[in-house]
Write the structure tokens for this entry.
Amino acid sequence: MAYTPPFERTNEIDNLCMTIAELVGMLHPSSELSTSPTLHRELRIRTIRSSLMIEGNTLSHDAVTAIIDGKRVLGPEREIREVENAKRAYDLIGSLDPYRLDDLLHAHRVMMDGLVAHPGCFRTKNVGVFDGDELIHAGTAASYVSDVMTDLFTWLASTDLHPLLSSCVFHYEFELIHPFSDGNGRTGRLWHTLLLSHWRPVLTWLPIENVIRERQQGYYTALAQSNADGSSERFVGFMLEVIRDALLPYAQPETAQENRQQQALDYFLEHPTDTIAGLAGHLGCSQRSAERIVADLRKQGKLERKGSARSGSWLVLE
């Protein structure tokens, strides 16, 4: 009998799917998320940094940007290699087939080149995920990994679930199996983006990894709860909320402008001496977009600059 991952739709999950479909429908073909190379670059930088931060990478936004631009930076050699590899892996999105297991192995090989002994190969030893000395999750026994991954891809290629749902279920099952010795998290998140991009190409640039990083504990909690339940509803619901919230700034222009302005004010309240470039990195937008947001806030009397451009600070007035 063909393998079918345990999963049952709920009213909450169906409502989230409907909301996401409506938001995707609001994305005009000429929208910034669809057409802006500058925004695409900023979001890709943010995506790569966020996914690697979840795995413990400590490089700053500026350092990651420099590495992606091909510049030399100071930092731990392994962390620099992680960024270089991740850029190459995400650059493959347009050529990878999300329904081919060999393509997944190739993506892992690129993502983990020089970081593990046998990139692109399933692990040969049993593994566990620990919180200190406590075992949180034990992956599938190594001797079964190849078979269960084949079964998972067979299901993925044949399921009649909506791509929003099948992508989330796949993400959960992939992390449950934990097929590689290392790099499972970053590869699973890449594959989720790849699956969404095959449903709607504009979602290639959707910064879901950034939202996951902002809710990192919730991500692990949802994984653990689905493990305990023996079914993926909790994780699927969490990921659908992530996708919805990643879409909101781009699918509702007026609301997006208000949200970004409030996010900018909140950011400068916490980081009054930071730069507009730092704000752009925080918002996941181009520096020019961040400059427009700051200019609008200053015209509205909500933001002031105290002191010089180099050594001054931002004052939030409301």
